[in-house]
Amino acid sequence: MTVVAIVGNGPEELIPEFNPYIDKVDYWIGADRGAFVLAQKEIPIKYAVGDFDSIDEREKVIIRETADNYEEYQSEKDETDLEIALLKAFELNPDEIYLFGVTGGRIDHELANIQLLYLIRNKGIKGVIIDQLNYLELTLPGTYEIMEDNLYSNISFIPYSEKVEGITLTGFYYPLTDKTITWGSTRCISNKLSSNSGTFSYDKGILLLIKSRDAIPK
Known about the structure:
Rossmann fold, alpha/beta
């Protein structure tokens, strides 16, 4: 299995520690200042891409010394730096893509970045956004197992399509059986597992799984 991780230009205080993922990730890609974050941590960079308008010349030199491939783009372009990084990730034929540093800051960028999970899933790739407070994964109809996670213990399900039909939650504090939720519904917000594992399933629609914690660790 091939795993690619992309680090974006989001607020650094929201980027989680990379140590739990070092052994899982085969290739690291830095988008704009995300490349400098990787370089500072001495993590090998497969691609460093973007317009690099958020870093200075000294920092660019450090990135170039760390990255296998450095590609600088004009600031006026059709894709965001993160989408360019994602296109590079697709070239590596991954099974999973982790996205770090893509939440917080400007809400327009954050919402667009979350929508990139749809682009990833449509290619048959598992895409996950992870920050200090949240774990986000876009799912398609089917049955999924969730294991107890001490870091992200709150579990929510957000309709990504206008309607999600047949949702069933088993092993949760608030179980559901064959229900329909729609845009604007808060019925599946802030649940928890009632045991070490649980399952969720649904028949139609697209569902965003969000696991979260209550506060950023100090």
